[in-house]
Amino acid sequence: MDERWRQGMYVFPFVPFTNLYDIKQEHDTYRVYVNGDYIGNKTIFSQGEDIKDIEGFLKSRGFKNISSQIIGNQYNIEVADEFLEEAKRNLNVYLNNR
Prior knowledge:
single chain, 98 residues, alpha+beta, Alpha-Beta Plaits, four-stranded mixed beta sheet, 3 helices, 26% strand, elongated
């Protein structure tokens, strides 16, 4: 062993993390919002899954004119106000069953 090592001359390169999301997670997790209201989290467990699966789920439930946007770890879905409560209920069930 090197003499300098025993004398404590080496400094370990510790990097301070100020936010848990700065660190690569084992699985990607997104915070899901509908018209700005937080609904829940969606965790992507496998390579076959995608955050856009949520939009496909809503379309399979009869929601037509929806749009979505990913910003960082937030997934924002916009639906017409007349379908807002129904979309929230459907997504709440979807996110809690996955």
